[in-house]
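Known limitations

Structure tokens in this collection are predictions and should be treated as such. Users comparing against experimental data should check residue numbering before alignment. To illustrate the layout, the record for Putative proline/betaine transporter is reproduced below. The input appears on top and the generated tokens appear beneath it.
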Amino acid sequence: MDNTNNLSTTFKHKDTSAFKRDSVKTVMFASMIGTAIEFFDFYAYGTAAAAYFPKVFFPEVTPAIATILSLLTFGVAFIARPLGSFVFGHFGDKIGRKRTLVVSLLLMGISTVLIGLLPSYATLGLTAVVLLCACRFVQGIGLGGEWSGAALVATENAPASKRALYGAFPELGAPLGFFLSNGLFFLLETFLTPAQMLSFGWRVPFLASSILVLVGFWVRERMQETPLFRLAQEKNEVTKSPLKVVFKTSWRQLIQGTLIVSVTYTLFYTLATWSLTYATTKLGFSNQEYLFMLMGSIIIFALLIVVSSTFADKWGRKRTLMTSASALIVFAFLFPYLLQGQRNFGSVTLFLVIGFVLMGIAFGPVGALLPELFSTKVRYSGSGIAYNLAAIVGAAFTPTIATWLAENWGIRSVGLYLAVMAIACLVSLLTIKETKTVDFSK
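Generated tokens:
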């Protein structure tokens, strides 16, 4: 039954208009914009870390070491994200989703713009690297409260029969941000020389993210608090210490959610960041050529998010995700054969297309499943902690680990790494019950 019917019944003695849901358009944009900024910022950083930061911030070491050091700074934000999920989860479950999301968006946006203004190593030496890591850390704190709040804006406004589809709104921000970031780098590299890109071109995407932040701020200021949180407030069921409660009552769900989501991060940054480095250094592709192939495959990613979320509403979240995890294990052992030879456009395109099809299937239902694992009173904290721990387990050092594995053990070891993450996801899925029919108002 639609949760809004429950709300109307509960508040017959009150002005029920106060508990109306926002329009679908408002919910979609408010939940999608933050994830779009998250992936825009993170992929802009990932691209810059793979292609430009080794020379901008680590010019005095060998290219291989510079790349590894540069990719390590990529992981700094992921380490900070759980701290952000603790802080924003606490306030999101205590004072509401809306206000918390606005603050996290501004913190994330300001730190990203500051990265675009940083001096290089040639200007400040090691201080430039320290400032880069500091901005990246603050960015991670802001991001720690972003996804879970966006997912709750979507799912807590959704009819019960379409919760996975609504949960796909923040997930669609991922391919949107990815496409915008990729497209901007593609245009910059088309019209600027390599020297200009190293000098100032890499800064443009970080500064341009301010436009997305302003749009996001405007949309989120206009939205209401979610009806389910308002219901919890009215019934005096808002938790004063959500972090204490979530670790005491929902620690199993935290572990399960972390392992289920981790593989999506590992897959995404294997496809989008590590493969970019590998293709441009080992397979003979230019950065621009590979970005163009990524932009084409990201459209498939977006389509599969919607398709898989629709299936998750019909078949259930567990069945859909178990299908994707099983397919990922097979893909993990086969994809190294697609990354062979020099400038093999056909096989590399197939690698990207299959990878992003599986990414879409694995990522779409997560927007509903993670919030459904937790009760309303700790939902922001629980889903946020699980999601951001997954970012550490699955993504923080994925480009670095994959680069090291490929250099020392060959590309098949990268496939084995992905397979282990997919198996962990599959085992975790086997331990949970189907969440499609849970009472989301509790």
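For this record: Residues 22-430 form a domain with the Growth Hormone; Chain: A; fold (CATH 1.20.1250.20). Residues 63-94 form the longest helix (32 residues). Please report discrepancies through the issue tracker.
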